[in-house]
Amino acid sequence: MFQADYFDATTSTKRAVTVVVQEGELRITGAEVDVRFPLASVNLQSRIGGVPPRIELADGGALVCHADYAAVADELGVVPAKTLAHKLESNLKFVFASLVGVIVAGWFAYTQGIPWLATTVAERLPVTIERDLGRASLAWLDSNVFSPSKLDAAQKEEIRKGFAELLAQTPLPREVRLEFRYGGWIDANALALPGQIVVLTDQLVGVMSNNDQVLAVLAHELGHVEHRHGLRNLLQSSMTGLLALVVWGDASAVASVAASIPTAMVHAGYSRQAEREADVYAFDLLKRTGRSPERFAEAILLLEARHTSKMDGERSAGSDYFSTHPDSTQRAKEARAAALAP
Ligand SMILES: [Zn+2]
Questions:
Q1: Please, what sign has the CA dihedral across residues 158, 163, 165, 168?
Q2: Residue 313: left if φ>0, alpha if ψ -120 to 50, beta else—which one?
Q3: Closest CA to 170 of 124, 130, 218, 230
Q4: Regarding beta strands 14-22 and 2-7, do their DSSP bridges make them parallel or antiparallel, or are they unpaired?
Q5: How many Å separate Cα 227 from the centre of its chain?
Q6: Terminus of the chain with fewer CB atoms < 10 Å: N or C?
Q7: 3-state secondary structure at position 56
Q8: What are the C-alpha distances in Å from 335 to residues 14, 98, 204, 220?
Q9: CA distances from 305 to 7, 16, 110, 292 (A)
Q10: Distance from the CA of 220 to the center of ligand 1, in angstroms?
């Protein structure tokens, strides 16, 4: 016998009752209540830590028992089920460990999963889609940042010729485009957009003392093209925004990412690792086309000097070479080492 709150199927009001089990029946009695159910028709719900035992009745009513689970189970002749869920629930340490696990997994997904996913998607994304993204990015930059190049035709032609020589020594297709633009606020810069588009600004050409230095920069950009860094960056920043939406419900993050997709590459720059990959690629490519990585060392120091003077010591947000490269001196050193290596 035990006490319980009885909820009948129709009114759902709570009534205090006494429950007795006799002759295969569950008898519920109390003020204005006297009902019986065959024991086989009632169902003691599996135990949930801390919650009073609950018995579902055949007609849709229920009993919430004022006795512990073991006592009720004993009364009903049910073997108390020590479910795994209950064992785990009653173990606070486990609950805490699970919570920590979830947080760690979430953090890992955020910091490692997104770059991994971006790389994986970048490697599998059809070339046609990447081209569309590249075209859209360039169109956006053209209407917001760039204006037509003012370089003279002969100089452009000479740079194009050198670029074609570099390209011929890579496994990249001939369709890799070199675009000349006046750079606006991104100033002396070069960009590798998705879809195998390399953009060179007039200001960058102006800062260099010779075309071989310009070509050293372009060799570095070809490294970004070959490694598809532009696409990876673009995907990564969009995914971070999407995840922010899912996790924090932060719609503004997505809106801002969507609006800035074309400039993501310009603003965010590449990771150190991506820059290193592009540098090493450039040193090798320059040597294979009979040029010295020394020109790259000169180019990077000229760019550093330009941005330092122009920004009055403040770092330019828009520079591939500058914002992500506080280590220009180190990179120049590595270029010189590469020039001396056999
Ligand atoms: Zn770069």
A1: negative
A2: left
A3: 218
A4: antiparallel
A5: 18
A6: C
A7: strand
A8: 82, 49, 19, 11
A9: 81, 85, 36, 21
A10: 6
Per-residue model confidence (pLDDT) at position 14? 87
Confidence of residue 326 (pLDDT cuts 50, 70, 90): low
pLDDT at 255: 52
Give the list of residues 6+ apart from residue 135 with CB closer than 8 angstroms, or none: 195, 197
Residue given tokens 């001196």 in the structure block:
329
Q: How far apart are alpha carbons 218 and 209 in whole angstroms?
A: 15
Angle (nearest 5°) at CA 273 between 272 and 275: 65
Distance (Å) from CA 157 to ligand 1 centroid = 23
Name the more confident of 29 and 49. Answer: 29
How far away, in angstroms, is 178 Cα from ligand 1 center? 16
Q: For residues 7-13, give the mean pLDDT.
A: 81
β-bridge mates for residue 25, sequence order = 22, 38
- pLDDT over 60 (residue 250): no
Task: Give me ligand 1 centre to Cα 293, in Å.
Answer: 15
Extract the tokens encoding 61. Answer: 């009513």
Rounded-to-integer distance, Cα 95 and Cα 82, Å: 17
- Domains of the chain by range and CATH? 2-89 (2.30.29.30), 107-340 (no CATH)
Instruction: Collect residues with CB below 5 Å from ion ligand 1.
Output: 275, 278, 320
Lowest mean pLDDT segment, chosen from 15-19, 31-35, 261-265: 261-265
Which residue's structure tokens are 């760039």?
146
Pairing between strand 147-148 and 14-22? unpaired
CB atoms within 10 A of CB 193: 27
DSSP letter, residue 78: P
Residues present in the chain in total: 342
User: How far, CA to CA in Å, does 210 sit from each of 137, 206, 218, 319?
Assistant: 29, 9, 13, 21
The two three-digit tokens of residue 173, written as one number? 């297709």
**In one letter, which amino acid is 32?**
E
